[in-house]
Automatic annotation (TrEMBL):
First-listed, main subcellular location of the protein, grouped into a coarse class: membrane
Transmembrane segments annotated in the record for this chain: 21-45, 88-112, 133-158, 178-198, 210-231, 251-271
Coiled coil: none
GO molecular function: dipeptide transmembrane transporter activity
Organism of provenance: Mixta tenebrionis
Entry's Gene Ontology cellular component terms: plasma membrane
Keywords: Cell inner membrane, Cell membrane, Membrane, Transmembrane, Transmembrane helix, Transport
Membrane disposition: Multi-pass membrane protein
Family in the record: Belongs to the binding-protein-dependent transport system permease family.
Name under which the protein is recorded: ABC transporter permease
PANTHER family in UniProt: D,D-DIPEPTIDE TRANSPORT SYSTEM PERMEASE PROTEIN DDPC-RELATED (PTHR43386:SF1), OLIGOPEPTIDE TRANSPORT SYSTEM PERMEASE PROTEIN APPC (PTHR43386)
Localization per record: Cell inner membrane; Cell membrane
Domain ABC transmembrane type-1: 84-273
């Protein structure tokens, strides 16, 4: 019996399409591994991350301690596993603060126009011109070190890109037939913004958020490295790298273990963001 295949079934996946699928799949898999590691830290960590054993300090990687031990004899594998928790929590807090603020400012500026748009975008430009890490360090120095203060400091300079992107998309939609039809039905104001403009701006905001997470993780690690983030003895990758930098030439594994974790997390979110961009942005189809 002859089987008739459709054109879609006979057409093989293009190299670009296969790359998108693999990039998004690999990135999402790595992010899922990172999240599961943070959630299951008590089950995965072989030792108490804060337990100090001075007699076992600065041991190299071995069967007992896969990543070695630090200057206080704490198991580095356990501390790297637990270090995923404050990093992901900090990233989540920053996203919760930046995405709504950025979208709201951008959509209002694009929808209202006139002097409201000029004022909102000049404020956005001012915050966009500020160096992220320098301003974060200044705010944390005033507010005091800690997870919440670090998230607030980094969020203060992370929302302007979302606002500029949302404004550009809202300007393109403002005179579209889609919004004209909604206005003819009596829909306007905030109902039009949140019910019709927001759903169209949200996908690109999600992609931008995924692409910016790698930089946010590096900024959070920078705060921890300078002692402005999560305070000891809580395991945090940036502070662990700072501790390891003191003995990096003799006991390289103390800094290499948390440094590798930072690289892994940044790579996971960058791959996910790249895959999401290719999947959601039709301009990349070809």
């Amino acid at each position: 019996m002859t089987q008739h295949l459709s054109a879609a079934e006979m057409t093989p996946l293009s190299p670009r399409r296969r790359r998108r699928l693999s990039t998004l799949t690999i990135g999402a898999t790595l992010v899922a591994m990172l999240v599961l590691t943070a959630l299951l830290a008590p089950l995965l960590a072989p030792f108490d991350p804060d337990a100090q054993t001075i007699s076992a300090r600065l041991l190299p990687p071995s069967a007992a301690h896969w990543f070695g031990t630090d200057g206080f004899g704490r198991d580095l594998l356990s501390r790297v596993i637990y270090g995923a928790r404050p990093t992901l929590l900090l990233v989540s807090l920053i996203l919760v603060l930046t995405i709504p603020v950025g979208l709201l400012v951008g959509m209002l500026a694009g929808y209202l126009g006139g002097w409201s748009e000029r004022v909102l975008m000049r404020i956005t430009d001012i915050f966009l011109s500020l160096p992220n890490l320098v301003i974060a360090l200044a705010l944390v120095a005033v507010l005091g070190p800690g997870l919440l203060n670090g998230a607030l400091a980094l969020a203060l300079t992370s929302w302007p890109p979302f606002a500029r992107q949302a404004r550009a998309e809202t300007l393109a939609l403002r005179r579209s037939d889609y919004l004209a039809a909604a206005r003819m039905q009596g829909i306007g104001g905030l109902r039009l913004i949140f019910g019709h403009i927001l759903p169209l701006c949200l996908p690109t905001a999600v992609v931008r958020a995924a692409l910016s997470l790698g930089g946010i993780i590096l900024s959070a690690a920078g705060l921890g490295f300078l002692g402005m983030g999560v305070q000891p003895p809580t395991a945090e990758w940036g502070s662990m790298v700072a501790e390891g930098s003191k003995v990096i030439f003799d006991q390289w594994w103390v800094a290499a273990a948390p440094g590798g974790a930072i690289l892994f997390a940044s790579l996971a979110f960058n791959l996910t963001g790249d895959g999401l961009r290719d999947r959601l942005d039709t301009r990349h189809d070809g």
